[in-house]
Amino acid sequence: MEVLEKKNKNKKYKPILEGIPDWPVYQLSKNRKEFIEEVAQKSFERIKEIRPTSKQMVDELEATIYREQQRMKRNRWRVDPPDEGKFWASIKEELIDLTSKPEEDNQLKIEALLNKIVNRYANEIAGNFKPSSYRFAREVITFWFGRLLNASRVKKFGGIFRNQYTLRDKIQIVGKVKQLRNLALKGTIVMVPTHFSNLDSILIGWVIHALGLPAFIYGAGLNLFNIKIFAYFMNSLGAYKVDRRKKNIPYLETLKCYSNLALQRGAHSLFFPGGTRSRSGMIEKTLKLGLLSTAIEAQRNIYLNVPDPEQRKIFVVPVTLNYHFVLEAPELIDDYLSSKGQDRYLPEQDKHGSLSMLKFLFKFFTKGSNISVSIGRCMDVLGNYVDDEGNSLDTNDRLINTKDYFMAGGHVTIDTQRENEYTRMLSQRIVEEYHRINRIFASHLVAFVAFEMWQKMHPKLDLFGLLRLPEEELTLDYEEFRKTCKNIRKRIYHLKEEGKANHATHLKGKIDEVIKHGLVNVGIFHLKRPLLRNKSGQIITQDLNLLYYYHNRLVGYDLEKFI
Amino acid sequence: MTSRNSSDYKPVGVLGAGNFGSAVANLLALKRPVLLFARDEEVVKRIEKTRENRGHKMHQNILATTDLERVARECEVIFPIVPSSHFRALMKKLSPFLYPYHILIHGTKGLDISLPPGQTIETVALLDRGCVKTMSEVIREESVAIRVGCLAGPNLSRELADQHPAATVIASPFNEVISIGKKLLRNDRFQVYGNNELIGVELAGVLKNIIAIASGALSGMGYGENARGLLISRGVVEMIHVGRALGGNVKAFLGVAGIGDLVTTSNSTLSRNFQVGYKLAQGMTLAEILSSMDEVAEGVNTVQIIKKCADFYKLRAPITSTLYKVLFEDLTIQQAISYLMRYPLNVDIDFLD
Predict the structure, then answer these.
(1) Could you list the residue range(s) of the whole structural domain that residue A141 is in?
(2) Is A382 in contact with B146 (Cβ distance < 8 A)?
(3) Which of B95, B101, B144 sits opposite A408 (nearest CB)?
(4) Percent share of chain A, pLDDT over 70
(5) Which of residues 31-90 of B touch A (CB under 8 A)?
(6) Which helix (H) or strand (E) holds A257?
(7) Of A369, A388, A315, A374, nearest in space to A496 by CA
(8) Domain B2-198 listed as CATH 3.90.79.10
(9) pLDDT for A106-134, tens place per residue?
(10) Which of A394, A405, A410 is facing B3, going by the closest CB pair?
């Protein structure tokens, strides 16, 4: 397998900023208290704008309290602070008190309540970056990952103590690294990766460090903080907490303010704009606009409030994480199918026993499966590419001033509707870039081809009909499969020439080798393999749902019609 | 607010001194100075000398020019109103002078096609959505202008010039564009509605031209209102069916720019597209008709494009494809009508579920 991979040219990058004290994220955490106050203050003002009358405000507060109490009743997590119940009960009491006896100065008291709530939220969301634990976490990850790799790859006794392989060999970073490093000094970076696995959060933290960039702040799902070891790493890597259970306006506004103000202060940030992990295995097609809109808003505020020479630009950098294998794939695809199929799909209930877990761990340490990270070209907040100096370019490479997008009648103006539209456009651009920089692996190719061939053999069945077919009935003749793979690979080359996709170097070369590579790697650690060859050489599957999941990675390129 | 006021007297640009362009320039001139761009030096001279153009008396506030750069430099809001076949070329010329703060509201009811080299609209068999663009998409592709909208609705230039009551729709995803358009165009004889479904509204304006040709043909055959009622109502269904497949929203087709415009154009002898159908029914050939007209009837082109699109996406569009056969193959109108009357699909409305 290794021979197919081009010699790894990943090199070590020097940090672009010498000491941690220069990092924007460190500045942010040093003034943490003051920053949280500002976030609370700004969100407070914002919510008052959205709910101008005290009637509307009371309704909003009532809804918030109700939802919070429902959440506590139904869905409590380990990370939730123990005093939650008390807090919301007291807020509720005060609100009932206020509304039962109308008084002159009620407005102020209601606002005080709102203030309490947003303050609590702001404190809850805020990350806590500590240089000492950052350094420690970084060392731990690099060291232990390295040890494990060497144990598995260096086939000699004592491999675990060798340094022949490092994480850099296992994780390839390709794409516009130099530009990213340059622009991280000139402006503020918003990195927007695809999201397939819980491992992404840790992986991307390591990538940022490996690129020599200062730590980014990033919104990590609060559910991840339930797992103590994750919580420790993420806290130290600069994560702030995003609680997807809380959908009330005070919370959402506080969250957006946090991101917005951090960006305005120049803290490089990272969002997973898809929101949650892709359930279907497809590259995200629609993005969550909430956090994305904060990049545009922050940029506008910079143009509005900061004097000209110091206006920092915000750069959006799409990143795709490419895997042969996603640990959670079986659960994710089950989720997806049951939500899509409703009563037509009933997930099977067989969770892994401890033996199967052990088997998985053993495989994970002893077999290789590379991960690649593609860094896209930097864009401004409108999705225009920028050059290495950070100037925005139009499609004819003419320089444009991003500020002009916010101008009307000769001034920078605030127009929320306009910016919502810009956010939508930016999200479309990001999706386009994802497809462009996505590195297609051999494993994606074989999964896609096999599934589509089976679909074609059963033209009358819809997706759920197809998935219900017993796996034993599905076989593909190898020659036919090989021919189709070759054909689709040609299409992928074509897409690459047109700049619409990218592929791993291992996709080139003899098609039989590529197919072999794909079959060995596709969903490599699953107990039931999505695709393999049987003794008589035919292509078979042990788990069609999983195959569907891995196949989905190539959906969106219109390759289906060439099957 | 003082600064706002200064921009209130900034001139507005109109590109294209055709019939509709002149009518729009006159409407705008009631509120603001207008820079009217014309390709042809002679037209500019004539307007400046006689204050007349294509039967419109041109308002004193209008200054005609051939200087595209000047229009872009002095105007923040520009209305491109040129035939779809010249639209992209004009945008290419204008593009170097445009900035992201410009607002463009076009008034062209046609489609743009990009064909593979060596092909023409006649020779190409099928067209997918990738080669067929609405005018706002052309603007977005060719320039950095992003705040884009369109004017659509029952706006026969002649009646506008005579100041009959009328309405138009300004469609744009940006409320800002709609409200500026309203501010510039609205007066007590001219009502302006806003719509956020830009693509849908553009398509409605484009597709209705097909039905207008068919309607002209019915009139030319001497048929009356029953026939027209049938045509218009089935026409709406076809417009929505095709429009949806090309990315338009149903809502856009039910408003002023959809049904409003369709009814107007299908009933009006003033409409060029109606004229094409009418003369066809009277026995003239397409070539004769086109050479007798001084301005483009967008519908003829649209029939070709939509027919080939419908074939690509396997859409049922009986009116369009029959009309195509009449215009470009040798089906007679009589045969076309009897074919349509025997068309098997008898569901009245199927787009509301």
Answers:
(1) 127-165
(2) yes
(3) B101
(4) 86
(5) 76
(6) helix A249-264
(7) A374
(8) no
(9) 788 888 999 999 999 999 888 777 777 77
(10) A410
